[in-house]
Amino acid sequence: MSAPDAPDRTAGRRADAAGPAGERPTPPPADRGFGARLMTPLLLGSLLNPINSTMIATALVAIGRDFRVGAADTAWLISAMYLASAVGQPTLGRVADRIGPRRVFVAGTVAVCAAGLIGALAPTFALLVVSRIVLGIGTAAAYPAAMALLRAESRRVGRPTPRSVLGRISLAALASAAVGPALGGLLAATAGWRAVFAVNVPLALLALVGALAWLPADRDTRAAGGAAPSDAAARGGLDPFGIALFASALTCAMFFLLRLDAPRWPLLAPTAALTAALVWWQLRHPHPFIDLRMLARNRALTLTYLRHGLTYLVIYCVLYGYSQWLEQGHGLTSFHAGLVMLPMSGAAAVCSLAGARTKGIRAPLTVAAACLTAGSAVFLLLHGTSALPVLLGAGALFGIPQGLASTGNQAAVYAQAPADGVGAAAGLQRTAQYLGAITASGLIGLWYGQRATDPGLHAIALTGVILGGLLLALTLADRTLRTAGGRTFD
Fold first, then answer.
1. What does the angle CA 279 – CA 76 – CA 175 come to, to the nearest 5 degrees?
2. What are the residue boundaries of the Major facilitator superfamily (MFS) profile domain, all occurrences included (predicted)?
């Protein structure tokens, strides 16, 4: 931790030379540079994506009734946003690394405002899907831009980003995702389902005003006399063809994964062809959209993406599968099912705070993998007549890995990413998470079919046990995590 101290000592010597010895400035407090003015807009922006991912769930029935479409069609309101976010996160992270995170953050909040208005006024279902796509792109800007802004602020103040600051970003996402279904249900019941879209307008405006007022201006890389090599690289092309190939391959994969109960095997051919073309193009482009050579060299970062994707594959399987089973397999109302899920959300929030206070990375990720495996095993014991305390305990146990894995993997990406590419690296982390979510949707459809049953829940739980065990083995075998906790986040 000695490297970050050097800028502070240099600054102190300059201050002594500039003024009398008796006017030496007071050492900065621990969180100077990461205070409320910087964090408020970042936290507001970071909650927009997860809250919109879950808030729509309790409005789907009303939307389908008004537009006279079925559940298969309303599912596109979820899938469209996941797809847009999966492509948008690394794309906008790359843009943030090149033109500045503040500009990207501001543009994202403007897009969220537009999406809220389009959805609130949409006369057709197709336009409603368009609003969700725009919403996915707009909300995708906040997280990678926030990570890039924190890295820039760390350099400015000459000290690493406090782990607690990263924990707040993670907690904002977890907490907003947890309250999303309840907020969506409340809005739909009191003001109609269009309020679920309209509420984005005031939320985004608050984030926009805070960003314009408090976020530091982006550094101008076009200084006279030329730029440093890293800056020149940062201003490289955005590789639109690579982005198009990535989006096309991901779209084909999503269409296949969403119907694992009735596999569309012909989709595997274009998915494989587009993936091969993407790899070929990325290896030859001077500034690739996804730097495959960097990922091959940076084994630690690649393993972090794999762990994060596997973790959220299991989490989304249980999160959405459990809630459906509580209603259809256990006979609870949607309101009571939401109450039973509260201990899971509460445990995730508490463990997110605990993970933010932990200096290391390997230990919390190991505990998360172990709890993921144990929690999935507990779900193997549930059945339609299980007592309420058992249901609550099972959910609470499964909430532990959500909080620890979120903060642990976030800290790992921040430490392992290239210094001039943290925005794109953070975006790819979220892409891995969304791929887990899309795959989980397909597995839930495969195991449940038309209705959530005990055997279906047990199949989901067994999948979680197997993948959780694999995740635990990967975590224990990853030697890079032993030193990642001691790296500086600058």
1. 90
2. 38-481
